[in-house]
Amino acid sequence: MRSFPKPLVVSKSLKGNKSKLVKDYVASWVKNANPKGKFYKKTRFIRRLPGSIILRLLRGLKYDGLLFEKNGKVAVHVFFQRHGNALHMFSVAAEQGFGGKGLATEALEGFLEYARAVPEIKSVRIGAGEHKGVMAIFKKFKQREHELKIIVRDGGWIDFPEKQ
Fold first, then answer.
1. What is the topology classification, in CATH, of domain 8-163?
2. Which SUPFAM superfamilies match (predicted)?
3. Which of 9, 49, 77, 135 could be cross-linked to 53 through a Cys-Cys bond (beta carbons 3.0 to 4.6 Å apart)?
4. What is the mean pLDDT of residues 82-109?
5. Residue 92 buriedness (CB in 10 A; 0-12 / 13-18 / 19+)
């Protein structure tokens, strides 16, 4: 059973009735990124800029994301960067009060659905193998390959067989 409506795609939600929620959430997340993460190191030069400029720079660097709402708030996000014909997920997180309910797994399934719907995307990478929770979800996906119609490879890679 789905807990979320269709996710908000960050790059497509910068205008319209959800734009403030999207802009505020992404800008706040960037400015408060995990200092131990690779994203933090790669984007240290933009954190002090105004949110609107941060969003434009992220789009130019092919960053995007999915925001999953619950009760008018972002409950879970999935952030990724495009690399050729693949999307590399680098962050999935449930916000305070939403954790421990399987929502991150559901959000990553939504990420797979999103990626599959983008014609030129053939693969996704779910993290870099450094986060225990993400790797546990990845292992679950391996067990559900047939059901999800995916091929799971080492290193966090998932292929869409119909696109290979």
1. Aminopeptidase (3.40.630)
2. Acyl-CoA N-acyltransferases (Nat)
3. 49
4. 88
5. buried
